[in-house]
Amino acid sequence: MPVTNYESLNTTTDITTTKTLLHEAIPLTGTIVSGTYGNWTSETNVKNYTHGQFQSVYDYPFLSSSANHIFDITMGYDESSVLSSSVNPAQRSKKINMYNEISQVLLGYTGSSNQVRLFENDLVLDQSAANLMKDCYFLSFSRLLTKDQVKKGSMSLKIGTGSWALPFASTGGSILTLTDASASSDGSSTQDTIGGQYGLLYEDNGNSTYGPNVYGVVFYQAGIVVVTGSIFSSSATFMSKAYGDGGGYMGLSGSFVSQSISGNCDALRHRLYNLSFNNTTEINSTIYFCRVPHNKYNYSSNPTYTSGSKIQVKNVSSDNPVSYITTIGLYSSNNELLATAKLSEPLKKGPSTDMTLRVRLDY
Asked: Average pLDDT, stretch 67-96?
């Protein structure tokens, strides 16, 4: 249908923008992370790489066309950590590089000495020695799950702190729940960094105060969880071989030093009881209020509108002209068609009708 006239949009009164946040609950059971698809020595949904710097976890065996990437898991420590100077270290440089790479991307450098910032269990970022987390595990969730960001206050991570044989037993350990429930959406309880905002992962002690122990942080926009190795006591028995070749067990510090990154990732996955959070999808919209005055658009230039000089939609010749609006077109200043919007049903338009049609463009 050819267009013969246009209605101008006032950029002040006829156009506005909005942002809508959609949230989706993401529950990850510990059996998916470790146990659903085989025992810990041959899990087909856990992919190890020849470089040995991290593991990838899938919701199905990773060779399956239905498999979706859930998250990557790795660990590392800063070169100033006491573990860095231990004897007989395994993959020492890779563990240091992994820690430095992630901290550089998320925290950047200090202003005074231009050194890579270390992770902290507070929101001050003053690099105080008492608050540093130098030995950490890292969970990097796929964008398929986190979408635009993790919703603040929704992260819950349950980890068994017991031995390898009984990670969730009350004897020698327990299930420790970490949560960022104290984080608020207004940003008052989060910290801004070059990698986005992060909130603290407190020990959930069963009341609304949360804490006082902080065992990690969650970076919302990056979708990365950092858990300090001190969540496990020195007596917690970790496996001593990456794939269980009959070796004995050792404490956390020994495992961090002498075992591979993959072996330590196996040890953490074996202790993940449950994990859940809400993701966030940001929908930005531009809304156009298209005004249809009473004295316009009462006729149609469609060839089928008339027959023998008579308007088809009129029964009596003396009746007022009438038309039906089915489509709205948005044009540039040069009258170039940019977008069209279809109405769910035709709207009857006559000289006594004045209407405003709301068109929303999502992106």
From this structure: 90
